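Pasting as-is:
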Amino acid sequence: MQPKLIIHGGAGSSLQGKGGLVEVRQSLHAIAKEVYDLLLNGKSAKDAVISGCRLLENEPRFNAGTGSVLQSDGQVRMSASLMDGTRQSFSGAINVSRLKNPIELAEFLQTQSDRVLSDYGAAELLRELQIPPYNPLTDLRLKEWMEERKDNFQKKMAGVLAESEEAGRGTIGVVVLDRDGKLAAGTSTGGKGFERIGRVSDSAMPAGNYATIKAGVSCTGIGEDIIDECLAARIVVRVTDGLSLAEAMAKSIAECQENKRDLGAIALDATGAIAWGKTCDILVAAYHNGKEIGDTLEWGVKETVGSEA
């Protein structure tokens, strides 16, 4: 099959000007190209997802890995998950600290009998694996936290993109179809910022990241809204039950709008169809359809679902 992929770097309300748009586009397109080249060279869907998530986690512009937001106590705690659609195997790490690439922990857990670990257990595993400690904190995130501390954390969440102090919601995600027709999805986040210690993101749940042999979905936005809708799994189940990917996305996003949710989603199915949807103003996403790279960065505010053959 012709490989396909779609990636996202969060969702929100603004890219704060043309300079922000250009830089975000360059970053997303470069990562999409690098991951697609891996697929052309025979990389599996799962391995390509891991590579794509790692690249997005390493980009300080996005709220995952380096550049993750701080929680209310001033600590960075990250979550990530990986789902191999062929094996229908989910793995994840919740609220892990001092790690450069949380997706790598999710990768290791794919082979374990205990496949989702949180906080203390994840930290113990990092020590067992002798993964060197890493501080993902950036000056921008520290400044953001210090400013919000002055107001006793009145904001519901931190910004997502480095250009924006009011950008909204954050996560990164990758969904891939490889040349063997296999699907995989990965999602990673630093959380929503300023949250209560122990809060769990949708990114390490099937609600926010899900894949089978039929379709794969990665979500972004307000984690609680995504969990309430069980959005990723819902879209995949609808495809499994016979809806096209575009129909499944449209129906699910329409329900989210009715329920006044704040979120976005990217998806791929086994036929190579690409789809995305949002209830917020901006979905920061790019895709490779087998011929060229496109993105959703100038996608109209009134548009809620899109697709690419």
